[in-house]
Amino acid sequence: MRLSEIIGYYKKVAPEIARISAGREIAVKFGAEAGYGKRPDIAQFPSDILNHVRRGATSFHISEERWKDPLQLSTESTKTELDNLRNGWDLVFDIDCPWGFEIAKSTAKLVVQALRWHDIKNIFVKFSGSKGFHILVPYEAFPKELHKDEISKYYPEIPQLCAQYILEFIKPNLEKQILELASYDIKKLIEIFGTTKEKIFDEKTQSFHTNIFAQIDIGLMSSRHLFRAPYSLNEKSWLAAVPVQPDKIKDFEKDFAKPESINLEEGFMNFEGVRTGEASQLLMQTLDWQKRMEEKDEKKYSGRKFEFSDKVPEEAFPPCMKIILSGLQDGRKRSLFALLNFMKSAKWPWNEIEERVWEWNKKNSPPLKTGYVKAQLAWHARQSLKVPPPNCRQYFIELGVCKPDAICDKIKNPISYPKFKIGGMTSK
Ligand code: SF4
Predict the structure, then answer these.
(1) What is the mean pLDDT of residues 139-166?
(2) Does the beta carbon of 325 lie inside 6 Å of ligand 1?
(3) Ligand 1 atom closest to Cα of residue 414
């Protein structure tokens, strides 16, 4: 798009972007290859948007979190400081499906249906500008308190849990819809997704790995994470992140998002009519589901025959963990998840885990964002239950860190590796 066309487009939508950005952090992109401009930033007036555009801005991104003063944010802010500065968050599902727009539509439709099933009326859907959709349930719909504390402090834990619960909730229907799309032909599925049978179908349970097909990216729900602002352009597709009627997702075509064909729908993400507690049912069901999952995990893991009597030294870590600890370029978030579970199960004191994780992050290229690492550490610190890392080997093969040695042939989970390397287990 030419600069004059970009300016002309944003002149039309800047008032709406500025209105929606109130109380949020914004970040500005200057071209497809560029990173974000200075952060934190805000857009109070349409002229703020247009000034950026005249300087070459192509897209605008807003935070899920709402802040008392976004300009007080800093990469050095502690979790407590962020909690005190935050005065809300929206639940935003990021439905981004690399395997085709039809599957993204099916997933988005099912998420909307699931939210409706939980009595939520105010659901805001928009095209992501690329391959999927963003579905938003506003903060105003949630009860103001949880466990006698402001619910604004439960970020990203509560939205992450809600997303996981909804994903579980829609799984059977999603699986059915994906199968229908492929006319129940597994060969066709393999062809569509360009993958192997093992990656899409679990022989043991005779069911599909639904997460492989369509992911609700819960990674979006991390501290200071952003999503494309409604009406912002996407500088790769030159399509706009336009609102979509929740009941018309299936009819949506990418052509509707061409800048020249959008109809400005004033009032998108206007939360005035949202009833407090509209999302209570979702919250209750999510917490109940979490409890059931924890009990299940407890049963599964508390019956372990052994545990380490002392902290496992790094020399006794399995190859995958050593490779992760040497620093990564890709798969850093999933690796952090596995690493934290491994170290907790390997009897590392929490302060040493934190120290080692920060040291590790410096070796990553690029390092994970400070806010993301802080949020993950905070979440894991709160989980009293020690859950082992994912089993060998698929998860680690996908991360490119599974380099088995002779001991690996004897084990099913990386946490068993040190037992053979150094012994040191005690019977329970
Ligand atoms: S086999 Fe298991 S323990 Fe060994 S490197 Fe692979 S994932 Fe790690």
Answers:
(1) 90
(2) no
(3) 3
Ligand 1 atom nearest residue 321's Cα:
8
* Residue ID of nearest Cα to ligand 1 atom 2: 392
Q: Counting every residue, how long is the chain?
A: 428
For ligand 1, is residue 100 a contact (CB within 6 Å)?
no
Tokens describing residue 390: 């994912």
Q: Is the CB of 15 under 6 A from ligand 1?
A: no
Q: What is the average per-residue pLDDT within 215-232?
A: 77
Residue 378 burial (CB count, 10 A): 17
Record the pTM: 0.71
Ligand 1 centroid distance, CA of 405 (Å)? 8
Whether 390 lines ligand 1, by a CB cut-off of 6 Å, is no
Question: Measuring CA to CA, which residue among 272, 245, 271 is closest to residue 90?
Answer: 271
Tell whether ligand 1 has an atom less than 6 A from the beta carbon of residue 318: yes
408 CA → ligand 1 middle, Å: 6
> What was the pLDDT predicted at 384?
65
Q: What is the β-pairing status of strands 26-29 and 59-63?
A: antiparallel
Distance 396 CA to ligand 1 centre (A): 7
Structure tokens at 184: 């129940």
pLDDT in tens, 132-146: 999 999 999 999 998
319 lines ligand 1 (CB under 6 A): yes
55 lines ligand 1 (CB under 6 A): no
Whole-number Cα distances in Å, 215 to 64, 96, 164, 172: 19, 7, 10, 14
Are the beta carbons of 375 and 224 closer than 8 angstroms? no
